[in-house]
Each structure stands twice: as structure tokens, then as C-alpha cells.
Amino acid sequence: MEKTELIKTEIKKQMRLGGPLIAANLLLTFLILISIIMVGHLGNPVFAGAALAISFAAVTGFSILLGLGCALETLCGQAFGAKQYHMLGVQLQKAMLVLTLSCIPVAAVWLFADKVLIFLHQDSEISEKAGVYIRWMLPSLFAYGLVQCQIRFLQTQNLVMPLMLGAGSTAVIHGLASWAFVYRTGIGYVGAALATSLSYWYMVVFLAVYIKFSTACKTTWTGFSKEAFRGVYSFIKLALPSAVMIT
Q1: Which of 1, 3, 48, 167 has an alpha carbon 20 to 30 Å from 28's alpha carbon atom?
Q2: pTM value surpassing 0.85
Q3: Distance CA 56, CA 134 (A)
Q4: How many domains does the chain have?
Q5: Residue 161, domain extent
Q6: Which of 129, 110, 138, 154 is nearest to 200 (CA)?
Q7: Could you tell me which of 177, 152, 128 has the C-alpha nearest to residue 66?
């Protein structure tokens, strides 16, 4: 009986932590789905261009940042387990620095996405539309990197409810912004890309405000520190294999 109770307690604990995380990831995935739905009503060439741009962005940018962010999960877990709580904030800053710098070469590739796609023998008209769409998505690239860092920082501390609330409100804002930009401003299909950028930056601000002002992060976020510039190479060595594996 005692063993059964322990199992039940552990299952409840895992559901309490895993449920909000699953919901948060699903809600963030809905951002792409919402964009595709909004653009889908504008015709096949535009739809194909947006879909190609989103796929290109996922392979050349978002998946790389997702992989690089995995290193923070390991380092924050070590610091939290060792009760060096202030180091979680230091590792967060280090990860934000590395991922932001990593966005620069990716952004350069995105700027010439249409030429890259044409070189890969994709349809020229669709490639041109994809190139325009992905350039409007550029701000979301940097925001996505920061969000990945914030998610792992909070996840390590079992602070999952803010992630679910942030993702939920982001999905709502994205839906409204996509509809407004695509159908009300006259900018057409690129409005969905602009809405994506706006939505990811909203989530960055939402989580940053929580981390800054929540008492739950009082010991783990103690402000910006020069320590973040130490051990950057070690972070990169840990992050690169994860990025390669996920990509």
C-alpha cells in the first residue's frame, strides 16, 4: 500500500509539472498553425510561399536555437541541484548572449532565403514570396532565442504555470494580430509573419516581467552580472552537439 501511495504521489507530481508544459508547447505550436490558417484564405501561391518560409525558418533557425538552448537546461539543473541559485540567473544571461549572437548568421541566411530556395530548385514565384515572408519574420528569430532561454530557466525551478499563461496569452494575441494584419491593414500575407514577430516579443516581455518581479525568482535572478561572460566557450561546447542533434 505504501508503495502504491508513493507511485500515486509521483504521478500527481509529474502531471502537475508536465501538464502545464505540454499545454505551453501546444499553444506555442498553434502560432504556426494560426499563421497558416490565416494565409490559407488568400490563395495557393501565397499559401505555398508562407508554408515554405515557415519550413525554411524552422530548419535553418528555430531548430538550431532550440538545440542550443538545451545546454541551459543542463547547466541550470546543475546549479539548482547544488543550491547555487544565483548561478541560474548567470547561466540565463550567458545563454541569452550566445543565442542572440547565433541569430546573426541565421538572419543573414534569412535575408537571402529566396535566392537560397531558387538555388535549391524551388519554384521561383513561391521562393520570392517565401523570401518576403521570412524577412518579416526576422524579429521573431531573436525573440525565439530569448524565449527558449527563459523557458528553461523557469522550467528548472518547476515554475511551469507562468509558461502556460504566457503561451496562452501569446496564442490569443497572435490570433487577433494575424487577423488584423492580414485582413484589415492591407499588407496581406506578410501580416501573419509580422504577427509572429509581435507575438514572440510579447512572450519575451511577459516572462521577463515575471522573472524580474516574482518572489519565486528572487534568489535565482539577482540582476545582470559580469559573470555571464565567463565560461562562454564551455557553454558553446555543451550547446553545439545538442543543436546538431536536433537540427
Answers
A1: 48
A2: yes
A3: 8
A4: 1
A5: 2-246
A6: 138
A7: 152
